[in-house]
Specification:
about 190 residues, alpha+beta, seven-stranded antiparallel sheet, 5 helices, 7 strands
Amino acid sequence: MLIKPLKMLIQGVLLLSLVLVLIGLTLPQHYRVIKTVEINAAQEVVKPLITDFSQWYKWSPWEKVDSSIEFNVGEPSSGVGAHQSWQGQWGYGEMTITSVSHNKVNFNILLNAEHIITGTFTFIEQNNIVTLTCAIQGQTTAPLISGYTAILSEYVLSNTVSLGLNNLQTIAQLSDPQRVEQSHDSQNSPSEN
């Protein structure tokens, strides 16, 4: 008597596993995250916070996400060829700045020696405001579960990039002495009634 229900349970679990694998195979393996923030600071203040890995500790959210993570900044630490690596409970990785122009910084990330991510920071300065956009894209490589891994990667990166850009906004605005002085002057000026 017990054998028939057990056999049906095993068949059900196998069928469900097969359905999940088939769905996973049809899901896209690519993901893309694009986040934008407006920063009330000069581009000359914002850009070095991105192009110099020795400045990332000020705003990067990864130590909050993974408290075990340890970063190593290589030489050079800024500009094209700048390199940093890390090790944490979720694995290891490395990031390299591949190009820097007036309004764009491109980078590559290699996770766990197999997962490649490309990204770009784009700056648009207008009316004393820097609009900073971070775009990241990648493809997962986990056999049979790549689609699910892509969904998870997009979710984690979306939230983490938003947190990082918000941190960067705060640090840059507090680091721009001219903007801070202007802000204090406008707060201390007599109001017109």
